[in-house]
Amino acid sequence: MCDDKNKDLTILCRCEDITLEEIREYINQGVTDLEQLKRLLRVGMGPCQGRTCTPLLVNEIAKATGRPVKDIPLTVFRQPTTAVKLGVLAGGINHE
Amino acid sequence: MNKTAEYVIIGGGVIGCSIAYNLAKKGAKNIVLIEKKYLTSGATGRCGAGVRMQFGTETNCLLAKKSIEMFENLEEELGYQGSIEFKQGGYLLLAYTEKMVEQFHKNLGVQHKLGIPSSWVTPEEAKEIVPHLNIQGLLGATFCGKDGHCNPFKTTDAYAKAAERLGVEIMTYTEVIKLLARDGRITGVETDKGTIEAPVVVLCAGSYSRDLAATLGIDLPLTPERHQILVTEPVEMMQGPMVMSFYHGLYCQQVPHGSFVMGLGDPNEPKEYNYNGTWQFLHEMAAKVTFLLPPLANLRVVRQWAGLYDLTPDRQQILGSIPGFEGLHLAAGFSGHGFMIAPMTGKLMAEHILGEETSLPISMFDFSRFARGELYVEPSVV
Question: SoxA A3 domain location, by residue (chain A) (predicted)?
Fold first, then answer.
């Protein structure tokens, strides 16, 4: 838990090291669209694909906009489900 | 929400936002930009975002050269608070056949005439530029150190914010249903939120421009073609340039964030609106890239996605007016290289729309070239 002095160090997106404060700054500027937050801040673009940060982000957006959590559209979850090495994916295919 | 505007721009990608900014900068008032979803939700946000001057036609070389000069100062020009993450690590274009070698030398001739600092490099020199490159079968390459990569989301955001500061209204999550015209001139657009009357409409909605033009009976020769991309986990910087092989149809770049972004073209793709990713792509991409750049085999793929090229028969954009509909302008058909020429395209389109002389000629990109049978083929596109 961060103390008050270091409140800007509350990491919300662990993969991309994005803090709660950075996210609130964007939300305060009017960026309350999860798709836009993702693209401008890289939240949810890391290896965990937003498994940790997306619910937290949705809560932040809901709080800021007064919209119910269920009405906040989620971003697209993209394959692969888990990070896979290129070498593994290439395995079995003959190189010319 | 029925309203009026002076200019309606359809499409919130980098082209639309660049046109909006350039129009507003020239003093145009009452501009509305309409985007179906969120900014960059179409081709811009799905592109590989490479930026290169190494093209095969003089006009694309010039458009790209001027655009790169603009990218270099874009943050200052647009007063952007963040970074557009412009990295000029160069582009290394690989040649694997005699025919490619010949074409690349031809391209270099065009490029050098225009002052583009590209050069021919031997396989050994290519390996000096990218030490982890497998040069098996490589006949040579061309390299231009001024080419590079830029963050497409940030670049579009920078244009959009600058445009808004100049008074442009940006309407996201608003879909244009059809274009409206009367007596041979454009009168506005009908959206899912009402009608916007306007004497000037600029269509820059990527592949969707075709469907919108069709609402006026205009047949745009645009076909959507799916292209897939993947991104790896970020690692220490190890690759300066974008590595591109027309032979393998692929490109691979390490972005400033540390991730590798790579994609493949497949000419056999069905020409339809398809945003689904496939496992075949993952396998093919992985096989080709680990052959070309073997150490990448250890990198993990984090995400893959698909986007659409808006392809024209000659792989060249269509810029200018549409005959028969006064006030209707088009900037579409970028065939996979729209992002990198967006700064200059926005400027040229603003000049054209305002009836000024354009800083570079754009007549070769006009819509009527297809009817005249004057195709203007760009040889250097993946």
Answer: 15-91
